[in-house]
Amino acid sequence: MSSTVSHPLLQNLRSSLSGYDFSPAHLLLFLSGIFAISCWAWRRSAEKKNWPSLPPGPAGLPLVGNLPFLDPELHTYFTALARMYGPVLKLQLGKKLGVVVTSPATAHEVLKDKDFTFACRKGRDVRRPRHRAAATSEIRKTVWYLRIRAGSPVNVGEQIFLTVLNVITSTLWGGTVQGEERERLGADFRQVVSDMTDLLGKPNISDFYPYLAQFDLQGIERQMKGLVKRFDQIFEQMIEKRLKMEREDRNGSLDGGEKSKDFLQFLLELKDEEDAKTHLTMTGLKALLMASFSSTHDMVVGGTDTSSNTIEFAMAEVMNKPSVLSKIQRELEAVVGKDNIVEESHIRRLPYLHAVMKETLRLHPATLLLIPHCPSANCTVGGYMVPKGSRVFINVWAIHRDPSIWSNSLEFHPERFLHSKCDYGGNDFNYMPFGAGRRICVGIAMAERMVLYSLATLFHSFDWKLPEGEKMDLTEQFGIVLKKKKLLVAIPLLRFSNPRLYE
Ligand code: HEM
Q: Is 79 in the pocket of ligand 1 (CB under 6 A)?
């Protein structure tokens, strides 16, 4: 058959390309290209047609979307919206799409079934902190402080915050600094941590309008860089000091006394082992230190407020329910005794106190919307389309208070956990104060020990009452970490006359 009777489209193509010298092989290649492109375009348009719709949600304004209508108490606002729009709803946050997930089934989809797409990052290599000795000695210091203040009002929240921060920082640099220097460094560090937490909690326009990020209109990026630099400087001081101590130790100027095996020590030993091969420099050591907890400031910022606010809420709830307090104290007397101080080994044998911790985390989960998860590809949740790059919030606070899951859901009732298998290991999507899946909290063991050990010590050594005329206020305030709106101020009363129990 002659080429002149070919398909009109081919004739057309041939005439428009008539200036070129095409061999049949070129033509075949060219046509295959066109065919492949058409197939791709057809599949994409078919896929688009098959994509489910976006989740429902309240109407917003052009350009700003729902931003002007957000209530600062985001958790209660999201919970109210879920009642209107269901367990998967959308909010337009400037250029970003926010998706709020409010049911165990849809949370399961995000955190388990589609964990890989939603985790935002690949696996982690997190070195778990060693913290036993630090927790014990820091909490004993707090007991000593409270003994001096016994009978007068104490800002319990602040004391707990300081204790937890000291536990975490001692884990990092242990016995490197002592006395006044330790206080000064602690104060510096506390300031950096609280500035970082405040900054992280501020709404950043760049998050909602990524193309404005380069202008850093509110200066948040610049301030954060400054804080990270201060954070770095503190670490640098610690490392230099530790290296000096090591050198002196080797020269025999120290008596070779017991070395504290803190994290910094551990890294320095690692450095020694590697030195000959890799010449780990100061910068390398610092980088190693910083990288060792996916990010050290994540650990300090993530671990301090969460643990101390949980302890504060637990104290407030227990003080508000005397029957719970007497059960805790009876358990402590049976396990620890009246002539003994609480030790780490007692912790595993306090099931009622453990139930109190779980119930506190049910009603007041510290990271109440988890850390926003963002899908790395378009996907579906609850049958709705969730586009790549959206921010997905899991409203754990609402799930933990859902009356269809929990009986008397708003009541503080630790007994519900006493003989139940319900745990926070990330397998139960009705209860997930530490999250679940790939991004689950890395500090669960540390948080558990710190919360239980602090509560056991504070309730074993002291009775607690509110200052005259005060009423317990359990109101919560939204933040990246949920906190008590009003700091807990209470009066510690000594339970034992033996001063040895307060050392
Ligand atoms: C009661 C105390 C604590 C609670 C309720 C808590 C809760 C959480 C939650 C809900 C997440 C996010 C999980 C997700 O988005 O899926 C998280 C992440 C994290 N937590 Fe905790 N946490 C606590 C204590 C700690 C402690 C003591 C540390 C440090 C030793 C710590 C370190 C971290 C880190 C580094 C992450 C980020 C993990 C990642 O995204 O890769 N947390 N935590």
A: no
